[in-house]
Amino acid sequence: MTQTSQAVSKITGALLILGAVGTLFLMSHHPTLGTPEFHSLAEEVRGEARGNQLVHGAMIAIMLGYYFGMVLLARQVGRDRWQITLGLIFFALATAMMTLAPLMSGFLIPELAKGVAETQEGRETFRVLINMAHAMNQVFANTGVVAFGAGIALFGLALLGEEGMNRITGIAGLLVGIVLMMGMLMGHIYLDVHGMMGVAGGMGVWFALAGLLLIRAGGQAES
Length: 223
What we know:
By secondary structure, this protein is mostly helical. It has one domain (3-222). 84% of the residues lie in helices and 0% in strands. It has helices spanning 3-28, 41-47, 49-77, 82-114, 120-159, 164-185, 193-222. The termini are close together.
């Protein structure tokens, strides 16, 4: 591993840990509709558009960072393992879905609100559009969480036969991945803001452990 690769591995590992913490912070500041100071739903969406875009834009950046981290971790663990190859496919699907979901909420809905006329017909039309966008957001997010669960479980399975920190990360990956998949598929997890906090927390634990593995790998290669 070259010095540049070592630095990239350690920096990416640190960013995975920061991303895990940052996701929880962002979800705790997720905008919610229903503020009484606004006269209409469209007015509220327009008034909160900037903050909405910042939160969801940051979420997209974290999802892309997660995927980059998994590609680097795959190199460390061994991309020739079928679990890792299949896991990367699920992580790619999860990243795509969890990029589309915040695009719906953070960017499409505010864009739709710009052209809404403040009439009864305009408000009713916007409510239909926002319900459609929310439905699309839920489909993308649900698919993304299931795919993340599958990817995490497969990486965990690949690490399970190793020792030390790798084995701990493998066990955590299997547990987190299975809980996410089964919770979503059996309808026990609903992705409102509180549900996403739980999902982000579970995923965050595993991505933080993966970040530690990358930091350690960069340090070992240097020594």
